[in-house]
Amino acid sequence: MSSLQSSRSAQASDGATAADQPQLPSDPRYARFIVDLFGVMAYGELSGFERLSSDARFSPTLHDRATLGRLAVTEFEHFEMVSAHLAALGVDVETAMTPFQPSIDSFHERTRPADWYESLMKAYVIDAISGDFYTALAGRLDEPTRELISRVQSADEQGQLLQERLRAALADDPRLASRLALWGRRLVGEALTQAQRIGIEREFLGSLLFAGAEDDQEKETLLLFSRLTRNHSRRMSQLGLTA
User: Fold this and answer.
1) Residue 214: exposure state from Cβ atoms within 10 A (0-12, 13-18, ≥19)
2) Residue 224 pLDDT level (bands cut at 50, 70, 90)
């Protein structure tokens, strides 16, 4: 049994007490991973709130502005959810988020939308691929962590709303298709590069998750990224775009 599995089993055996009062795992490496995971999730949600709030002012209609505003509120609610969980673990949320601020801010600078339509596509692509990434990791983690990830990533309604608005925009102006398809490809490439960079720096995808030889770790990482890319291609096809 790997150290990760042992840590999960030990945590599960704590029963109702662990469920009532979240605690950091006793394994220090796994505990550090959990803090990193929630730190990057929290800053991702906070950045999402700021991005959507700012982009809403470029909306072509007041209805669209209200729609993006509602999505921004959801992002902030998710940020508060993760923050509360970190606080319950005895971890300061700002301390947990700080290591990820430069790289996430840099990502958003590199992928600054040119207009409202690109902003809408960015929200659609990044929220979906982030959800896929965290959901894939959740299957290897302890129950309290899986539960929180599930609550934060239960955004099917949000994704559907973005998809419907993008479809309407593409139907109104078919010339948008080639531009948004190219933009979507750039976004997913940047997102996967960012995830890999953070994974290397903070052990997101290393031996902690993929126990075994180095070749096995690399294989597992490639399989995960291939799955994320396939899911992205499927979502682009639902919009009538080529990934």
Assistant:
1) exposed
2) confident
